[in-house]
Amino acid sequence: ADPVVARGLARCGRMVTLAGRSGHFKPSSDVAIVLSDLVLRSIDALGQARCRESVPQILEAVDFFRGTPIWMMDRTRLATVAQALGRIGDERGAPLLVELVDESGVIRTRHVGVDRLATQTLGDVALLALARIYGIPPASLGFESAEGDPEFAGFASPDLRSAARRALLEWQRRNAERPAGGREPLPPAPREP
Description:
Helix content: 40-55%
Strand order of the largest sheet: 1-2
Radius of gyration: 17 Å
Largest sheet: 2 strands, antiparallel
Number of strands: 4
Structural class: mainly alpha
């Protein structure tokens, strides 16, 4: 997207969020549902545009809308946010993504090989976004992808999922204060036999 359009989308999301915080609409109203959809579509577009300067506005909008009934019932909205933050690649989005990595709600299931299924949870989407932010190849964490679905990366077993989460969160904890060029490599993820 054009940088001017991206700034306009970020500003729109911020204004809607401020209107909600100041009580101009009730979180459970039809107006809130429509505005939350507008904000979510703006966040998705900002992710597609890789608009780094929009990260504070995205985080502010999520902070407000994730407490509304529509976002609490439909967790895929947070998956859209996680994907956008992963595309943008700005480390300011990492704290929100860390909060989401333990979310176990299944988003999708795909075939990743002959007689092999993998599931993608909201936590997996957040973990994948963190990997992208830190420049870690998803395969090094044990993510499996489905042919023809570039947005899908999941795990074939809960054990692999848990090991990947532990590995990335431990790596992040150890490297949080280090500059990008001085970070330790990620240890290899365990594989199923």
